[in-house]
Amino acid sequence: MKSLAPGSIAPPFARYSHGIELPAGARLVRTSGQLGQSLDGRVPEGAQAQADICFDNILAILGAAHMAAEHVFHVSAFVTDRAHMPGYMLARDAFLSDVTVLPSSTLVIVSGFTRPEFVVEVEVWAAAP
Question: Which domain of life is it from (predicted)?
Fold first, then answer.
């Protein structure tokens, strides 16, 4: 993967790339949106705790395809309030801490999810040879 960062636009204001170029023939994985619910059904309070679960779930899905965080080329995240952005971003940055080519990223504030206790949802695209 190659990060695309044209000098003619402002740099990203967080840990992401403006664009990503994928190599020809890459295998793709697309996850569904993951919510912050643990295997036992628990939904912790707070965006960071929920986002940690989202990213753990994403790692498990990627692992099933023999991929890891380094293969993620796009992250889409949804939070129910601007106040949840810092917690989400801490979890996202931890997920990407060992990644050399940062993925592109979209973060959207939404009115809610299927249950009121959910405050974050995350989905990714990944590619590998």
Answer: Bacteria
Average pLDDT over residues 21-34: 97
User: What pLDDT does 1 receive?
Assistant: 93
Range of 89's domain?
12-128
pLDDT at 73: 98
Indicate which CATH number applies to the domain containing 46: 3.30.1330.40
Tokens for 73, please give them: 């080329």
The token duo for 1 is 């993967």
pTM over 0.85: yes
Determine how many CB atoms are found less than 10 A away from the CB of residue 28. 13
Sequence-separated (6 or more) residues with CB below 8 Å from residue 122: 33, 34, 51, 54, 55, 58, 75, 76, 77, 78, 88, 92
Placement of tokens 């044209």 in the chain: 6
Helix, strand, coil share (%) of the chain residues, nearest 5: 25, 25, 45
